Amino acid sequence: MSDQQTVPPPPQQQQQPFKNDSDSNTNNPNNHDNKINESKPYLIQVSSTLPSLETINTFLTTPNCGAISLFLGTTRDNFQNKPVLRLSYEGYAPMAIKELCKLADEARGKYPSVEKIVAVHLLGDCPVGETSVIVGCASHHRREGIRCTEFLIDELKARVPIWKKEVYGGEGQDMAVWKENVEWKEGRRRRVMVKEVEEGHSCDSVGEEKTRNGDS
């Protein structure tokens, strides 16, 4: 009889999609598959893939909520009359997730009828027509759910440290421009956006030219 014992393998990560691995995963800057646990009613993810709409809908569905509101951000094929080939997103996942958690807490405080929240963002390439970000919520009534969803996407763009590169086509040569997510409120920028171009200059979101290091 052999003395060797068979040790059952640990459960697969996908079997616990909202498990809190904050003590290990969020300290690893290379781990982009960070997800938040069941201790709060949130599905938050910053990853190279997005959960399916079926997964999101299943998570948000709850008996005491009569409304599910979702926003999906997709890559369009143009920007200011320039053809866009794709977008590419970069960010530090643990920091982005931490900010998304704060945002979800604020949203539930602001909209009390909201029971569950989803905020997921893609890292990496996102071709034209593909989805890069999904936010949404389950609420008792539609009005607060719609308002909460708008709040989530506006604040995500204003606060979460994720940058995108727009890759343009045309004129026989591709050009790429890095942008920081930015939103305007009451006519003012919430956070400065700098666009870097191949010639070594940059311009802000209102088109004022700047040097690469940000000096005016």
Structural features, described:
With 216 residues, this protein is α+β, with helices and mostly antiparallel strands. 20% of the residues lie in helices and 36% in strands. The protein has 3 helices and 15 strands. It has helices at 53-60, 93-110, 142-159; strands spanning 34-35, 42-47, 67-74, 78-79, 82-91, 114-122, 124-127, 131-139, 162-168, 175-180, 184-185, 188-189, 194-196, 201-204, 209-211. The strands form 4 sheets. It has a 5-stranded mixed beta sheet with strand order 1-2-6-8-3, with helices on both faces. Strands 4, 5, 7, 9 and 10 form a 5-stranded antiparallel beta sheet that branches. A 3-stranded antiparallel beta sheet has the order 13-14-15, with no helix packed on it. Strand 14 (201-204) and strand 15 (209-211) form a beta hairpin. The longest helix is centred in the middle third of the chain and has 18 residues, at 93-110. It is elongated, with a radius of gyration of 20 Å.
| Intertermini distance | 78 Å
Overall mean pLDDT: 75
Number of E strands:
15
User: Which class do the helix and strand fractions yield?
Assistant: alpha+beta
Tell me the fraction of residues in β-strands, as a range: 35-45%
Proportion of helical residues: 10-25%
Number of helices: 3
Uncertain segments: 1-32, 184-189, 191-216
Largest beta-sheet characterization: 5 strands, mixed
Backbone CA Rg: 20 Å
Q: How would you spell out the order of helices and strands? A: EEHEEEHEEEHEEEEEEE
Which sequence of strands runs across the widest sheet? Answer: 1-2-6-8-3
Q: What general form does the structure show?
A: elongated
